[in-house]
Amino acid sequence: MRVTVYYLPVFKFDLHIHSCLSPCGDLDASPSAIVRAAKRAGLDGIMIADHNSSRNSPALAEACRREAFRCLFGMEVTTAEEVHCLAVFDTLGQAAAMTETCYNALPKRVNPPDVFGYQAVVDADENVQELEWRLLGAPTRLTIRETGECVHRMGGVFIAAHIDRPVFSVTSQLGGLSGGEGFDAVELSRHADIAVWRDKTMGLPCLRFSDAHQLDGIGSAWTEADLSVFSTAALKAAFAGRRLSTSCRVPAFSPSSSARTGHPQSGQK
Ligand SMILES: [Zn+2]
Ligand SMILES: [Zn+2]
User: Fold this and answer.
1) Is residue 212 part of a domain?
2) How many structural domains compose the chain?
3) How far is the CA of 19 from the centre of ligand 2 (A)?
């Protein structure tokens, strides 16, 4: 008897990487440098998730075109509750519309770069085109529910960011998930034990991303799924079918810290 084994294609992606547009992001983290670092790290697709803005996404799109790499477009929205949420879209137009919504909901305060850091809008050749004047690190006036409704109306995916973190998470700000926020999935940081948190996610799929603020953080955590295309529709299908596993790099204190052993934490079925 001949046994045929089929392997599903595994797509490794990270939807939470900060660029030089985030005040807390490294100035070296241009979209082009991020794409090169993601390829080196063995990822298949990424999204830049700057605070309340997607203005470096056009450079990301061009960098990906040059490198034959895949990406989605979006941002990390800070809601009125000071909860960080990922908004994920397929097109630059959708991400730009969400950015406009965030800008209209931000306080009209000017970012002092010497206090919070520079917010550089760059092109794919790493030329600084503009320094964003708005205080991107501030919370918007949008509640979690309003943000989720907006993201869904625009056709996007809405993810609760780093729910295990002691700051800027649904756990730190509200004590946890109620189930009525409208999230499609939750993100855990690379430090979280997924077995501990799975019971606190209201049945939502658990993802893991790097939340990298420097280039060397890219590849420290990722999610895998059998995606044939990198799109919000494919993500939603993977969420519905629980066809996901999450991985992270060995912590720095380990003797084999440079190894990417993967530690698959599947079994989310
Ligand atoms: Zn965050
Ligand atoms: Zn972040």
Assistant:
1) yes
2) 1
3) 10
Interval between CA 76 and ligand 2 midpoint (Å): 6
Distance 38 CA to ligand 1 centre (A): 19
Residue 44 lies in a domain: yes
Q: How many angstroms separate the alpha carbon of residue 24 from the centre of ligand 2? A: 9
More confident residue, 87 or 268: 87
Structure confidence at residue 259 (pLDDT): 34
pLDDT in tens, 135-160: 999 999 999 999 999 999 999 999 99
Q: Phi, psi at residue 199, to the nearest 5°?
A: -75, -10
- For the stretch 7-57, pLDDT in tens is 556 999 999 999 999 999 899 999 999 999 999 999 999 999 999 999 999
Q: Spell out which residues have Cβ within 5 A of ligand 2, the ion.
A: 76, 211
Grouping H, G, I as helix, E, B as strand and the rest as coil, residue 246 is: strand
Cα–ligand 2 centroid distance for 50 (angstroms): 7
CA–centroid distance, 134 to ligand 1, in Å, is 18
Domain with 161 in it = 11-248
User: Distance, CA 1 to ligand 1 centroid (Å)?
Assistant: 53
Q: Say how far apart CA 173 and CA 179 lie, in whole Å.
A: 15
Q: Cβ(193)–Cβ(199) under 8 Å?
A: no
Is residue 94 in a domain?
yes
Q: Please tell me the distance between residue 7's alpha carbon and the centre of ligand 1 in angstroms.
A: 35
What is the pTM for the complete model shown? Answer: 0.90
Non-local CB neighbours of 218 within 8 Å, separated by 6+ positions: 14, 17, 34, 37, 38, 41, 43, 46, 210, 212
Backbone conformation region of residue 207, classed left if phi is above 0, alpha if psi is from -120 to 50, else beta: beta
Residue 196 in domain: yes
Cβ < 5 A residues, ion ligand 1? 84, 161
